Every structure is written in structure tokens, then in C-alpha cells.
Amino acid sequence: STFSEDYAWYADEAQAAAPVRFDNVPAVAEMDTIVAQLAQFRGPAGATTLAVFGFVPVGRMLRGVDLTTADFQIGAIVKDQRMRDVVRRVRTERLHVGDSAQLETRTWRLDLAPDAYLLRLEARPPATQRAARGMTELTVERFGAGALALSDVVLADRIEPRDSAPLRWTDYLIDPSAGRVRHGAPIAFLWELYNLTGDSAGVGRYRVELVIVT
User: Fold this and answer.
1) Contact, 73 vs 92, CB < 8 A?
2) Among the listed residues 52, 128, 76, the one whose alpha carbon sits nearest the alpha carbon of residue 97
3) Contact assessment for residue 130 and residue 30, using Cβ atoms and an 8 Å cutoff
4) What is the C-alpha separation between 73 and 60, in angstroms, rounded?
5) What residues pair up with 107 in beta bridges, in sequence order?
6) How many CA atoms does the CB half-sphere of 140 hold within 13 Å?
7) Does the pLDDT at position 152 exceed 90?
8) Are strands 149-150 and 172-176 parallel, antiparallel or unpaired?
9) Tell me, what's the pLDDT at 105?
10) In Å, what is the CA distance from 184 to each residue of 143, 181, 187, 210?
11) pLDDT-derived band of residue 29, with 50, 70 and 90 as boundaries?
12) Nearest Cα residue to 45 out of 144, 180, 186, 172
């Protein structure tokens, strides 16, 4: 290309001052994926509780690295439609390293006002140039006090009550499923039903139809 007047000199000076730039280089060399299962339940004071079950591929992220334990920065970030942080839950954990198929499950319980959001899950071991990320747009629903409503259904490998009188989904120990089920293994489901009208004896009846698509 040609430059007029002093612009040729300016281009030479700019190239000499900064012959190379690194600010557009990715922060990590390898990016993996965090698979997540999301479920919405009726929350406190008109809010909706979003249960986030994230599955961090620790084994793949540390494959070939000679470590028995490693620090991981793991976080869940919720942004509004203007890309402002609504929730930011980030922490550093020390994890034991297993085989390459090792998945670490992390659960977040987030109370959100009904609206549209962007959810990001992130994990990074500072000792390597690898990271994992999951990102999805979501619409948080409103569970009012009028019409019959159903929460999302949680798919789990195992669900057990914490005590003898569970009332809410939080009263259960949930081992969520990452979508991989062994042949012959049981599958557990959990959901909540809201605003069911009872009969004269205070008993409510409803019919459940469950369809699983593979």
C-alpha cells in the first residue's frame, strides 16, 4: 500500500514501537466444555430458585499433567440483558486428580427474579493452559400462587431424603446425572407441584406421564 505525506513515517514508527501484539491471543490454549443440568423451582418472596448442576471435566483438563492434586477456579456467573453481573459465585478449590474420565459435580442454588439471563459456568486450573466453560441463555419463569404449575424435572443417579419428613426439593440429597447412564442402572427423578387443589379430605390427585427420549 502507499501512504501520503508523513503517514509512511508514522507506519514505520508504529511498527518499530510494537512489532507484535498479544492482547488478542486467547487466555488458554485448550477450551473444554462444562455440561450442566438446570432446574427451576418456586423460590422465596416471589423469586425463582435456579438449581445449577455443573459437571467439570477435571480428568480431561489435567490429562498428561503430572499432578496428584491441583487448584481449580470454579464459578457460576449470571448476567442480565445488559451484560451486567447479577450473580457471581467464584471460588478456588483443591481437587484430587483421578483418571481422564473424572467428572467433578458442583451445585449452585441461585434465587433470581423472573427475567431473561445469560448463565456462564467456568473452570480453570491455574497450573495449566486449559479451561472449561458452559454458557446458555435462560428465561427464569414465575411460579405464582394461582394456576397449577410444575417445576422442572431433575434427572439423577440417586435421590435420598435428608430426614424422615422431606417437604421441598432442598430436603433431598441429589446425585445429579450428567446424562450418562450405565446399562441396568436405576434413574431417579425429582420435581415439585404447585397450587394443586385438594378434595374434601385435603387430598390432591394428579396423573404423571413421563416420556424419555434418547
Assistant:
1) yes
2) 128
3) yes
4) 16
5) 53
6) 24
7) yes
8) unpaired
9) 95
10) 36, 8, 9, 19
11) low
12) 144
